[in-house]
Amino acid sequence: MGRGRHRGRSQRKHFKESRENVWKRPRTDPTVDASDNAVADKPSWEPILIDNPNFEEYYKEQGIVRAEEWDVFMEILRKPLPAAFRVNSNSQFCGDIISILENDFVKSLQAEAIEGGELEAIKPLPWYPKNLAWHSNFSRKQIRKHKTLERFHEFLKLENEVGNITRQEAVSMVPPLFLDVHPDHFVLDMCAAPGSKTFQLLEIIHGASEPGTLPNGMVVANDVDFQRSNLLIHQTKRMCTSNLIVTNHEGQQFPGCRLNKSRASEKGLSEDMPINQLSFDRVLCDVPCSGDGTLRKAPDIWRKWNSGMGNGLHSLQVILAMRGLSLLKVGGKMIYSTCSMNPVEDEAVVAEILRRCGDSVELVDVSDKLPELIRRPGLKTWKVRDKGGWFTSYKDVPQNRRGGVLVSMFPSGKNLTDSTQTTQNNENGGVNASEDGCKETDKSVVDAIPDEPVVEVSDLPLERCMRIIPHDQNTGAFFIAVLQKVSHLPEFQEKPNPRKHSSTKNADSTEKAPTEEAVVTADAEPVESPVEKVIEADADVEKDDSLVEHEKEKNTEGETIKEEKEANSSSHAGDKRKVPMQGKWKGFDPVVFLKDETLIDSVKEFYGIRDESFPLYGHLVTRNTDTSSVKRIYYVSKSVKEVLQLNFAVGQQLKIASVGLKMFERQTAKEVGSKPCSFRISSEGLPVILPYITKQVLYSPMADFKHLLEYKSIKFPDFVNKQLGQKAIDLVLGCCVVILSDGEEPVEVDASTIAISCWRGKNSLGVMVTSADCQELLERLAERTPKTEVGSVNGSNGDSGGPADAMETA
């Protein structure tokens, strides 16, 4: 016992000492032999650079924090970011997870917190509803590396893998909370990867729906980068939702899929389609940014940071936000957010949006929402830095620098001296300026002495924006603005005239049409991933018709496909790759509605699914046009179905990376043979379809259910409950569902019902669940039963008569 206590003290001492070294890396000196280093007993670690004079100068000048706070601000930025995570509110074990955190880890980790000088090891974030979000006083690296935190680390890993929690930075959780999402909303996440906010949006949509029903809304999660889209798919897969489409487009060219009447009549489509245009009730526009708000999580940014990073992304951020607003329904809300502290990427972008949109968009005051979240109002004045010089007004920018420093970066968004040239907001229908220029009685300019720098102060209500500062709550930094579309956007925002801009040769005219801005900012985007556009054989006719229809109806919310065509031709100049035809996106399998009635009927009959209670026709899609080769069948909600129908009608403009919920998978085992159904129910789809299955169901008592999870396979004679073994024999060979029951049959299925997919083989019953899911279920069941009944949760694999050896999953 004494030795154990000594070992525990040693571990805590080591842990305390290493808390200060989590950002350190090996120091190598090629001129010194390793043995010499050992003899000299010199430290083998040196800290990663966490200093950048340019960064300090820049943010001191911008006045992000008061002078008396500066030292505290910089001190917290140099410390590692504490780990944070969120409990999935839709998990059937949500209450169990919160209980474990509150009653176990809060107490068991307290000793480590005290050793490290903290008051609490973990605690719920006070501003997040229902104690669903938690903050740890340990960094992710500390949790991963230290023995004293091993049990907590294993808990987080397992629950994250099965989808019960999501590891997410605390400030990243904020934007969806201000979006006010309802279960019937169509939501667009424009720059969605890696997917934690998308997961959060799906939670909100499902959580607000009636129990046992699918929401009428949906989420479209988009990201330009193909690899990041895969990460997004993996992240959201844990949600088990049929209300999601993942797309792979440049956000500024996201298609609106507008179906005009002539196109509908040509294809024999009814004009009464549920939707004839892809528009959204809510848009989350979390744009690419310089990312200096994540310094605590990514300390390598210290070395790379310079003010040009924000300047280079400003135009792209504006055009992304404008595209988001054009896809937004009137009355809808959009969040513009960044993980940057830079006002050029934050307030300047919001100000430019408001100038371009005039009275059609307003900046919403949300200061009364989430009162426990500490945030600061947006800035009204800031400066722009370029090539070592500071500018307080666009008039001070040299002619040769006006290609990189835009008028929209300044608080007023106006050229204050050139009376012969209309200002940016004049051209875009924003706040009007007088004909003799803006010098006259411009409220946005503070009176200045001649030849002195003009100090601009925005006359827009930018204080309604919010900036989260790291040292206020021991977090990262974030910027958020809530915008509401109160009327249709000005027509020219949807149909810019490129010739008007290109004919202006004066260097002062730095304003660009959205299509031009997209080209300019392509080089500034951190990850260059050009997206191929669909150009159909008859697309020119369709696009022209669409534009004429658009002009006639004065509906500026429609998709301006002509604009996209021009942007595409500019951004892909010199691209010799063949452009895909008819929506056959390179690297993506087509999305096809499954219409094979024989196959669908066989599935319905095998599992006893009544179509009137759970319709399959029209809700099943595949990624293969050949029914005989179909390996996976996906289920889509009513809302996703409508979007897919629209996408087919407009020539498959959406580049779909993932859609719906994997419901059935083809089984290729020899023993399947010519049985009635060769498709098994996937683990992801089981929670959705479970209430509607009336055949191939077993009700298992606790003992046998645990044995299945522990040993993965049980031979029929080995069931503790012999009646259950006989009922398993009576099942048809193939997939079945085992429901945990206390002896009553049948069980009324609800959100608390625990069930797993299994395979009824020739001689045994085997689980078709991942090892992680089995382990997680065993741990949850162990908490619900007395210790004398728990048994081993780390049993051997037992007899290998299950699907792991007998079958190969397609």
TrEMBL record:
Biased composition of type Basic and acidic residues is found at 17-30, 544-578
Q: Which residues bind S-adenosyl-L-methionine?
A: C191, A192, A193, P194, G195, S196, K197, D223, D286
User: Where does the record say this protein resides?
Assistant: Nucleus
- The answer to whether keyword Kinase applies is no
Record region (Disordered): 1-38, 414-438, 491-580, 787-810
Cite the InterPro entries for this sequence: MeTrfase_RsmB-F_NOP2_cat, MeTrfase_RsmB-F_NOP2_dom, Pre-PUA_NSUN2, PUA_NSUN2, RCMT, RCMT_NCL1, RsmB/NOL1/NOP2-like_CS, SAM-dependent_MTases_sf
Q: Which spans does this entry mark as compositional bias, Polar residues?
A: 414-431
Ranges annotated as biased composition (Basic residues): 1-16
Residues annotated as the enzyme's active site: C339
Would you identify the family this protein belongs to, as annotated?
Answer: Belongs to the class I-like SAM-binding methyltransferase superfamily. RsmB/NOP family.
Tell me what this protein is called: SAM-dependent MTase RsmB/NOP-type domain-containing protein
- Which organism is the protein's source? Brassica napus (Rape)
